[in-house]
Amino acid sequence: IVVTGSDDHLWKMWALPDGNIIMTGEGHTDWLSGCCFHPSGTQLVTSSGDTTVQIWDFSKRGCILTFEGHARTVWDGSWHSCGDFVASASMDNTSKLWDVNSERCRYTTCGHKDSVNSIEFLPFSNTVLTSSADKTLSLWDART
Fold first, then answer.
1. Cα angle for residues 73, 46, 20 (degrees, 5° grid)
2. pTM exceeds 0.90 for this model
3. Which of 45, 81, 94, 101 is 20 to 30 A from 39 in CA distance terms?
4. Cα torsion angle, 9, 120, 56, 93, sign
5. What keywords would UniProt list here (predicted)?
6. CB distance 21 to 12 below 8 Å
7. Distance between start and end Cα atoms, the chain
8. Of 105, 114, 70, whose CA–CA distance to 86 is shortest?
9. pLDDT tens, 23-41?
């Protein structure tokens, strides 16, 4: 499976090797910057220049949740291995931990002095790694 974005704010999911389109998503109002599959493979998180993070459900064939709260472009999103949390990295120098079940932001990290460009959970832990344009990596405890 390959996910691609386009200038018209659509993303497409392609099956390999036959090249058939499995699903198309439309919902962001600006370019797409990243995507990440849910650990179970049933959902997708996307990040965008429109400052939002969106959760897409394959069985419902559409967006089921939009997280708003970043002030600038969201560069990246990542699922926790339990599938209940999403972390996002933004050009506003912060990252956020989103609770999918309560549909709200649990925590905002502040500490980078420039854009947070990527974010990733350490598998099966509460540790989040961020990388920044300030030339640093930071480890965060998602519980605090």
1. 135
2. no
3. 94
4. negative
5. Repeat, WD repeat
6. yes
7. 35
8. 105
9. 677 778 888 899 899 999 8
Tell me the two tokens of residue 65. Answer: 């949740």
CA–CA gap between residue 59 and residue 41 (Å, rounded): 11
**pLDDT tens profile 90-130:** 999 999 999 999 999 999 999 999 999 999 999 989 999 99
Closest to 51 (Cα-Cα) out of 109, 92, 11: 92
The structure tokens listed for 1 are 């499976």
**Position 97, amino acid:** L
Give the torsion sign (CA, 109, 29, 5, 65).
positive
Structure tokens at 7: 């200038």
Structure tokens at 96: 């956020």
Q: 3: which residues sit within 8 A by CB, 6+ positions away?
A: 11, 12, 13, 14, 35, 44
